[in-house]
Amino acid sequence: MASFSMRYIWSETYPHEYHYPDHTHDFYEMAYYTNGTGLLTADGKDYPLGNGYYAIVPPGMTHCETQHLDAKKICIGIYCNEKLPFIYQKESTTKIHLIISEMLKERENLKYNSWGLLGIKLNEIFIYIDRDKHAKKKSSIANLEHIIVDMDVRYNEKISLQKYADQLNISYDYFRHKFKELTGLSPQEYITNKKLDSAANLLSSSSLSCSEIAEKCGFVNSAQFSKMFKEKYNISPTQYRKI
Nearest CA to 29 among 12, 1, 54? Predict the structure, then answer.
């Protein structure tokens, strides 16, 4: 079970644009924004930060940060006995902020065993971080059904599957995993099946040419349509129409 101890905690307000260049740590570092905005670049990717947003950068990960006008953040150095991934999310309640505020007061007025108490509060923070992650995933999966409805309507358009994952605020790999868990198909397989089912219906119920059906159902061209249709139905579109 992961346990945490604190290296430092401090709060600072940035009255002007401030950029901290690329660097790494041999410990975890948490940045929690309580005001204004900033931009964290970690491992080559940008993560906007603002009120209630926080990020935790693992040891050895190269990162830099730019704080904008009146940005205020609380920074915590953390030791952990287990390996944790990079974390970036928005707090779903104000619990973490309240605990951090208590930690700042304790650090400013050190008493007997203050560091032990700070360690306990730090472990409490990570319980709420896990709850944030769980709430985020639960919300994302609930919205996945809306994504499927959108696919059913727009299957013949150029759809960016990555944008769907972005809408749910989850990685594409996790989106693909949960989509397949729900439907039995990957997102791309689902869309392809919708195209082919629609094409089969048009072959049976309309006089449209194969080229027209291919275009209407969102295939790149009639050759791609014929190839994919035969892979699924084991006969060509022309043969299917004659059945």
Answer: 54
Query: Could you read off the pLDDT of 167-203 as tens digits, one per residue?
Result: 877 788 888 988 998 899 999 999 999 999 999 999 9
- Give SS3 for 4: strand
d(CA 124, CA 117): 11
The closest alpha carbon to 218, from 198, 238, 237, belongs to 198
Residue in this structure with the two tokens 């004659």, named with its chain if needed: 242
CB 180 within 8 A of CB 186: yes
Nearest in space to 217 (alpha carbons), one of 232, 209, 186: 209
Q: How far is CA 25 from CA 30, 42, 181, in A?
A: 11, 12, 38
Full DSSP string of 39-65? EEEETTEEEEE-TTEEEEEPTT--EEE
pTM assigned to the model: 0.60
